[in-house]
């Protein structure tokens, strides 16, 4: 990609008309240009082959990650992937209404999630199961949403993890406001400062809310890390359908730094997110991180990716698997051996089995739950509506069994 | 109405086909695109994927990417650009993926789409259709089951309709596209692929008027009025009531703005009783409007107050609870009992 200086004054043959004459996305296979390479500016610490790359800028942010700590990150990713696969299977078996897979995005989520500190706040979209796990939320607590018994009931304050948001982009403005609050309360300015991180997809970057979040956070110097997981697809629409330039470069237009990190590299995601959070803690936020990654499964269990993407693309990305490269590094450097990997796999299987058992035994919510907590203050009209409905229900012979 | 809706009489394909609502919409869109090359489809995933409900399946393949646009992911953008395209002379049909996501576009709908014609004293026409899959019963997560139609019916300048069967789906979508006014087209998503509702659609007839309600079943003891997904519930309830010797009339509203209450008044004058059924919450809803107007017009004919069977005045609950929230056959019959027992 050319640098911003170049694209402010396009050379003849580089403008929109010239671009129109280039092969259409159809001809170059939709999305392929964008989906295989992260480009020269991709920050990477661990190659797909599991080799450590030195980074003068970011090495110091992972200086503490020794063999043991890296094994911890490996374990996190294996557990989360195994639970994700189990939930996917449970949906197929009719036990969940829907599942939103994170397959392939484990490094982006564990790397960034583990970069957060207790005092930080995370605003997820709906695919951030790995971040939830990293924030200490029991994976089982996510299942109510997907078994459709609740809309997400975890203690968001205790975990520093906001409820999931399904409306694309909304949480970006909510996070911006939250981060402004941290700033207004004087909680930023030194090493112990607070920061907020907000997760969204490449598709979301087209939403007005995300743009407004960029503007607000810049104007108020909000301590906010925008963490865009560019998994290449917004359901069937490639990133090209959202942007003409790499997403991280947009930050420049709003006046804050943007960086593209290899989203399949857990070490790089950890380092870059620590750096960005640090910037925010010290009052230098906001920062945009584009984690360049890939959604290795369908968008959700209701989606059919064979309609819009090529299996070749998936095969190419499998070679960049976020878990395999850590495994290769650990093995090559004598930090772990086969019995260790087998042990983690067995632990992951148990993790998944617990999830399954818990899910199958989740109680059905009672009918009065429909009316619960609509308002903070009681509403007489709604109370009457509830009583009327419960009386109606009790008129059925089988009402007690409902 | 600008462009008359054409029948497909002359075509070699059989004029009578057995269709679901989803397939009927697909064919209706296709017919509209064939009839007028100014008709465009815009939305998220409407191209290759055919929309998340596959309603636009195959259209991009046959009409190309300039007529079926996979847009960036932004509802305000979809509707705002459709307004501009319409000003330019196109007839855009926007797809909103699920009703719960229409709100980023609400500003464009209420500030521009609904008002441009009025603001310019009729110099600008904005023949935009916004298709909105709506309603519950599909076991979905939050924001995928709501019924926000009353919010749009309250905005002057917009027309709001909803279909409940394949023949209407096929014709109403074409009529909405042919209308020179902006039309919010609410589609009962849980009925899209419902095999029970499959029925014959004669694509060669001339359709009845778009903005008109219709009596679907005649009866003498009480009137049920509904629209969209609730129509099937009412028809099923009427069939069940008949077995108990009760005769219920069922009216499909079809048009929510303007409301066509003529057939409802007429019916209530005969039956003396009205039960209004919808999935939307009751307060300040289409049902409220019906109740107000019926008591005004039919005061001396009413034997019982107008009753409403609706979703509750709560946000849509987690879907494990939606059987409680959604009006079902039993709740409708219970209301019939109350009305008749007055
Ligand atoms: C405002 C809004 N419009 C449409 C949708 C339906 N929808 C759900 S996910 C999605 C694609 C999101 O893509 P992206 O932002 O890239 O995130 P990803 O799912 O790939 O992580 C769409 C269109 C929605 N949830 N919210």
TrEMBL record, chain A:
Keywords from the named record: Oxidoreductase, Pyruvate, Thiamine pyrophosphate
Source species of the chain: Amycolatopsis acidiphila
Gene for this chain: pdhA
Name this polypeptide is given: Pyruvate dehydrogenase (Acetyl-transferring) E1 component subunit alpha
InterPro entries the UniProt entry points to: Alpha-ketoacid_DH_E1_comp, DH_E1, PdhA/BkdA, THDP-binding
NCBIfam families: PDH_E1_alph_x (TIGR03181)
GO biological process, one term: branched-chain amino acid catabolic process
Reported cofactor(s): thiamine diphosphate
Region (Disordered) location: 1-25
Skewed-composition ranges (Low complexity): 14-23
A Pfam family matched in the record: E1_dh
Gene Ontology MF terms: magnesium ion binding; oxidoreductase activity, acting on the aldehyde or oxo group of donors, disulfide as acceptor
Domain Dehydrogenase E1 component: residue ranges: 75-351
UniProtKB/TrEMBL annotation, chain B:
Domain Transketolase-like pyrimidine-binding: 19-194
Annotated CDD domains: TPP_PYR_E1-PDHc-beta_like (cd07036)
This protein's UniProt keywords: Oxidoreductase, Thiamine pyrophosphate
GO terms for MF: magnesium ion binding; oxidoreductase activity
Family annotation (Pfam families): Transket_pyr, Transketolase_C
InterPro entries for the chain: THDP-binding, Transketo_C/PFOR_II, Transketolase-like_Pyr-bd, Transketolase_C
Reported cofactor(s): thiamine diphosphate
Name of this protein: Alpha-ketoacid dehydrogenase subunit beta
Species per Swiss-Prot/TrEMBL record: Amycolatopsis acidiphila
């Amino acid at each position: 990609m050319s640098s911003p200086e170049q694209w402010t004054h396009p050379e003849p043959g580089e403008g929109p008309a010239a671009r129109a004459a280039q092969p259409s996305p159809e001809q170059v296979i939709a999305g392929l240009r964008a989906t295989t390479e992260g480009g020269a500016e991709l920050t990477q610490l661990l190659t797909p082959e599991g080799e450590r790359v030195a980074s003068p800028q970011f090495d110091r942010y992972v200086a503490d990650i020794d063999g043991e700590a890296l094994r911890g990150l490996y374990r996190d990713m294996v557990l989360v992937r195994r639970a994700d696969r189990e939930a996917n299977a449970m949906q197929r078996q009719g036990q969940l209404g829907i599942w939103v897979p994170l397959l392939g995005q484990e490094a982006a989520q564990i790397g960034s999630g583990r970069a957060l500190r207790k005092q930080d706040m995370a605003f997820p979209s709906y695919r951030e199961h790995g971040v939830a796990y990293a924030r200490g939320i029991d994976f089982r607590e996510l299942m109510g949403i997907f078994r459709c018994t609740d809309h997400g009931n975890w203690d968001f304050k205790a975990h520093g993890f906001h409820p999931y948001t399904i409306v694309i982009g909304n949480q970006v403005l909510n996070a911006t406001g939250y981060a402004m609050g941290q700033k207004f309360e004087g909680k930023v300015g030194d090493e112990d400062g607070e920061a907020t991180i907000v997760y969204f997809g490449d598709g979301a970057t087209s939403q007005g809310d995300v743009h407004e979040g960029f503007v607000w956070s810049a104007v108020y110097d909000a301590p906010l890390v925008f963490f865009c997981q560019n998994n290449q697809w917004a359901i069937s629409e490639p990133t090209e359908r959202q942007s003409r330039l790499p997403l991280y470069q947009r930050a420049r237009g709003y006046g804050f730094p943007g960086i593209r990190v290899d989203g399949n590299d857990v070490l790089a995601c950890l380092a870059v997110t620590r750096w960005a959070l640090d910037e925010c803690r010290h009052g230098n936020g906001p920062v945009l991180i584009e984690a360049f990654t890939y959604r290795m499964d369908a968008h959700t269990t209701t989606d059919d990716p064979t309609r819009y993407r090529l299996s070749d693309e998936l095969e190419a990305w499998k070679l960049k698997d976020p878990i395999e490269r850590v495994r290769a590094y650990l093995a090559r450097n004598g930090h772990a051996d086969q019995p260790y990997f087998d042990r983690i796999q067995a632990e992951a299987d148990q993790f998944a089995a617990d999830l399954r058992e818990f899910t199958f035994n989740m109680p059905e919510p009672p009918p009065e739950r429909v009316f619960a907590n609509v308002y903070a203050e009681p509403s007489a009209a709604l109370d009457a509506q509830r009583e009327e409905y419960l009386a109606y229900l009790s008129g059925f012979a089988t009402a007690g069994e409902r | 109405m600008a462009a008359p809706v054409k029948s497909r009489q002359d075509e070699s394909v059989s004029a009578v086909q057995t269709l679901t609502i989803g397939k009927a919409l697909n064919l209706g869109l296709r017919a509209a695109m064939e009839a007028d090359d100014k008709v465009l489809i815009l939305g998220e995933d409407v191209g290759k994927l055919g929309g998340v409900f596959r309603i636009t399946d195959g259209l991009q393949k046959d009409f190309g990417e300039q007529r079926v646009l996979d847009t960036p992911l932004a509802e305000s953008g979809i509707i705002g650009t459709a307004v501009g395209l319409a000003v330019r002379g196109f007839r855009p049909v926007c797809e909103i993926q699920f009703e719960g996501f229409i709100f980023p576009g609400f500003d464009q709908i209420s500030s521009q789409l609904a008002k441009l014609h009025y603001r310019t004293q009729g110099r600008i026409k904005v023949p935009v259709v916004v298709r909105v899959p709506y309603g519950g019963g599909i076991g979905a997560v939050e924001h995928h089951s709501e019924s926000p139609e009353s919010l749009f019916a309250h905005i002057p300048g917009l027309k709001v309709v909803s279909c409940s069967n394949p023949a209407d789906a096929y014709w109403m979508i074409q009529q909405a596209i042919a209308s020179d006014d902006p039309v919010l087209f609410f589609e009962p998503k849980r009925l899209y692929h419902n095999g029970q509702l499959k029925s014959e659609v004669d694509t060669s007839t001339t359709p009845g008027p778009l903005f008109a309600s219709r009596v679907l079943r005649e009866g003498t003891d009480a009137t049920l009025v509904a629209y969209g997904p609730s129509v099937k519930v009412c028809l099923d309830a009427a069939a069940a009531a008949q077995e108990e010797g009760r005769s219920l009339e069922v009216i499909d509203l079809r048009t929510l703005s303007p409301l066509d209450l003529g057939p409802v008044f007429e019916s209530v004058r005969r039956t003396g009783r009205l039960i209004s059924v919808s999935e939307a919450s009751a307060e300040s809803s289409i049902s409220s409007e019906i109740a107000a107007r019926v008591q005004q017009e039919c005061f001396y004919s009413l034997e019982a107050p107008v009753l409403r069977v609706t979703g509750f005045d709560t946000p849509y609950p987690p879907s494990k609870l939606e059987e409680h929230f959604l009006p079902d056959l039993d709740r409708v019959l219970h209301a019939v009992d109350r009305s008749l027992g007055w």
